[in-house]
Specification:
Helix content is 4%, strand content 42%. It is mainly beta and 286 residues long. The strands form three sheets. Strands 1, 2, 3, 4, 7, 8, 12, 14, 15, 17, 19 and 20 form a twelve-stranded mixed beta sheet that branches. A five-stranded antiparallel beta sheet has the order 6-5-9-10-18, with no helix packed on it.
Length: 286
Amino acid sequence: MLYSTKVVPVFAAILILCGLVFFSLNTTSCTKTETVTEVVHDTTVVHDTTTQNIVLCVLYDWSSMVILAFDPIADPDSVDAKKEWGGNSLTFPIKTMYPGYVMLQDTTENTAGTTYTIKVTSNIGNAEGSIIIPDSTYITQPSSDDTLPIGDVTVSWIAAQDADFYWFFGWIYACDSSGYWMEEEYIDSFLTDVSHVISSSHFNVTGAPYYDVYIRVYPYTGPLPVPGSTGNMTGDLNGFLTAEGDGDAVWFYVGTPIGKIGQHHKKREISLDDRKDAYLRALDIK
């Protein structure tokens, strides 16, 4: 399953791209419970609400996020999420209400190889599940600054311990004979394999002698996002609990570049919104 958009990558998200204010949490391994909660009601922007009921929980190495999207929406005051690990317990301290969904977040670190249990409660149902943060992966081919002939391009990476699937994504920049950017294409796919072939059809822009390509790969545990699938959490709600490990990125060229020094475009940053939107898009939830 491969998605692409021309010129500007558009994340077909069900959820509005809103910035979250991150709060510093002073927790340690001996902390048993964190109860302070900041509730934010955002009513300044109106957008289409979700038409499917879902709980999405994602653990990263630096934070955790829970989204409860229902129609009709749950009472935000009733929505809570708790993370438990190794005898510790932490209630997600940041709660934000948007039209159609509630988002909860905590900004404490998570550790690869550790099992975490997430419990989500609300007036419309509950969900619970456990997951392990996967180990890291790195890309083995192509190498940085490789120049490849125009045609099919294979990208490979090592298997990450505990990973169930990988998020493969990136940008292909078509460049003209003077080295100027002509066109941009975003591609992404969720895969169980440890390699992926970028078809030669992505390298056929008229007047482009070469392409500047930036690819990233992240390992995930949890259910592979497939349209119509059910989640991996128990309880009344359809909950998807996933965890992301450390990934890797590579820049390389396809075709005949005019030069390699300073030719690469600026590194693309990936936000939490980008991550959740990609997963929800793969589930085909609108």
